[in-house]
Write a structure and sequence with these properties.
With 224 residues, the chain is an alpha+beta fold. The chain folds into 2 domains: 3-87, DNA polymerase, domain 1 (Orthogonal Bundle); 100-221, Cytidine Deaminase, domain 2, CATH 3.40.140. Helices cover 45% and strands 15% of the residues. The chain is built from 9 helices and 5 strands, in the order αααααααββαβαββ. The protein has helices at residues 12-19, 26-34, 43-54, 57-61, 65-69, 76-99, 106-117, 154-163, 184-198, and strands at 124-130, 136-144, 168-174, 203-210, 215-217. Strands 2-1-3-4-5 form a 5-stranded mixed β-sheet, sandwiched between helices. α9 links the parallel β3 and β4 (203-210). The longest helix is centred in the middle third of the chain and has 24 residues, at 76-99. It is elongated. It starts with 11 loop residues before the first helix and ends in a 7-residue tail after the last strand. The relative contact order is 0.09. The mean pLDDT is 85.
Length: 224
C-alpha cells in the first residue's frame, strides 16, 4: 500500500509535524529523506531495506558513493543530497562549538568530530585550538596518513598552536578500522604532545579517537 493511503497519523511526515522528529524511528526518518520508493516498495520499505543492508544509520551516512548507489532506487542525486545534509550538520555543530565552551559541551565536540572523521578512509589527525576560556579559535586537519597510521610531528603542532595563540588544545584522529580503542602508539603520542605543549604553557585537554559511530575520550578514561 502506498504511504499516501496510510492513516495520516502513521505517515512519517505527518507524524513528524504532529509529534516532532524524536518520535520517529530510524526507518521513518530515512523514509522522509528518501521521499519516494521504487516500483512495488514504498519509501518506508526502501528505508527498512537500507537499514538491514548497511546495519545502521551511521553506516548509511558514512557509505561510499559506490556502495550507496548500488542499491536499487538510489543514485547520485540521493547521494549528493545525503552529503549536503551531512555537511550542513557538520557546519552547524562547528559553529556551535566555535561559540561555546568546548569543555562544557563534550557531547557537542564528540558529535562534531564523529561527523567530520567517521567516514574517512585514511587516518586524519585534527587539532582544535582553544583560548583561555576554552572557546574554539580554529579547527585544522594537521596531518593525514594511510589506512593504518598517520605521522604526527609535535614541532608542527607547536607552530600551529603559537600561530593561533592558543591556550589549550583538543586532538582527534580516526581509526578507519572502526575500532575506537587507543593503541600503545596513540598513548605515547598523546603524552609527547602534552609534554611538548606544556613547555609553552599550552594545555592538552583531550584526545578523541573516532571509530565506527563512536568516539572515545582520553580524558574520560583518565589517559591524559
Amino acid at each position: 500500500m502506498a504511504i499516501s493511503n496510510w492513516p495520516s497519523s502513521d505517515r512519517p511526515r505527518e507524524k513528524l509535524l504532529q509529534k516532532g522528529p524524536t518520535a520517529l524511528s530510524d526507518t521513518e526518518l530515512l523514509a522522509i529523506f528518501l521521499r519516494t520508493g521504487v516500483t512495488g516498495k514504498s519509501a518506508v520499505d526502501l528505508a527498512r531495506e537500507l537499514l538491514l543492508h548497511f546495519g545502521s544509520l551511521t553506516n548509511i551516512l558514512s557509505a561510499s558513493q559506490v556502495s550507496f548507489c548500488k542499491i536499487p532506487g538510489l543514485g547520485i542525486a540521493k547521494y549528493t543530497q545525503l552529503q549536503a545534509v551531512l555537511e550542513m550538520a557538520r557546519r552547524t555543530l562547528g559553529e556551535d562549538l566555535k561559540h561555546g565552551d568546548a569543555m562544557n559541551s563534550p557531547q557537542l565536540a564528540r558529535d562534531f568530530l564523529r561527523l567530520s572523521l567517521a567516514n574517512k578512509e585514511h587516518e586524519v589527525f585534527i587539532g582544535i585550538f582553544l583560548d583561555a576560556k576554552n572557546h574554539t579559535i580554529a579547527m585544522e586537519e594537521l596531518f593525514s596518513g594511510t589506512l593504518t597510521q598517520t605521522s604526527v610531528y609535535p614541532r608542527e603542532v607547536i607552530k600551529r598552536a603559537l600561530y593561533h595563540n592558543a591556550a589549550a588544545m583538543i586532538f582527534a584522529h580516526n581509526h578507519p578500522s572502526g575500532v575506537a580503542v587507543p593503541s600503545h602508539a596513540d598513548k605515547i603520542l598523546t603524552q609527547s604532545l602534552k609534554q611538548a605543549l606544556a613547555l609553552i604553557d599550552i594545555k592538552v585537554l583531550d584526545h578523541f579517537i573516532i571509530g565506527n559511530g563512536t568516539a572515545m575520550s582520553f580524558s574520560e578514561h583518565d589517559l591524559i
